[in-house]
Amino acid sequence: xxxKETIIRSKLxxxxxxxxxxxxxxxxxxxxxxxxxxxxxxVGDDExxxxxxxxxxxxxxxxxxxxxxxxxxxxxxxxxxxDVPGYYKDFxxxxxxxxxxxxxxxxxxxxxxxxYDKVNKIVSAIHSGWRGxxxxxxxxxxxxxTNELGSRAENLVVFIGPGIxxxxxxxxxxxxxxxxxxxxxxxxxxxxxxxxxxxLDQLAxxxxxxxxxxxxxxxxYCEEDYLHSYRRDRESSGRMFSVIGMKGN
Length: 249
Description:
Elements (H helix, E strand, L loop, with lengths): L6 E2 L2 H4 L4 E6 L22 H15 L6 E5 L6 E3 L4 E4 L3 E4 L5 E6 L3 E7 L4 E7 L1 H5 L2 H13 L6 E5 L9 E2 L1 H4 L7 E4 L2 E4 L1 H12 L6 E3 L14 H4 L6 E7 L3
Parallel strand pairs: 3-5, 3-7, 4-6, 10-14
Antiparallel strand pairs: 1-2, 2-15, 6-9, 7-15, 8-9, 8-10, 11-13, 12-13
């Protein structure tokens, strides 16, 4: 069996030497069940273990903890431009044009979306769960990049990390009714939502070229020994970090 990488990277983003990016997995950190390389302090894991996991992850990328910009996510469509590291309460997407500021997103089924404007040198990290996707957080983030920082859709490179697939994302009727019919798959009285297609459609409507979009294809729920999934493991689930930033001078 092929050995899995402890860190997930985008082939597209890896072609830009000025960019540092990655997504953590259940591998490569402290093997403490049930959390396995969890990077969040908010799930009941031992804080010392979480710190060890974070240190190992960021050290492997050459990133200092003091250079992190971390949103305290609330499943919103709130987006903020940041110039310095720190904690940003009540935001689910961060944008920066500054070097050596590394944007973080925490997920365990929701989709992490990493964006790079290769011309204007701007990066964004977006947390697109079902609420954020329905509220079009990705559209909001790219609109801010465009309107406030001068980005153009044709210059954007996008990586959509692992998230929950439509076959595993069962929702109630009240949630299904919040989405357009083309993203809803009824089956035997149950409803399933295709978040991936919604995200891709948002990118297409903004004019982002399909050749500049990379989708990991991994389902968090299905990869039970590799990726954290709240839907699968509930309170026993850890969280994965996705990070993107531009190297300092």
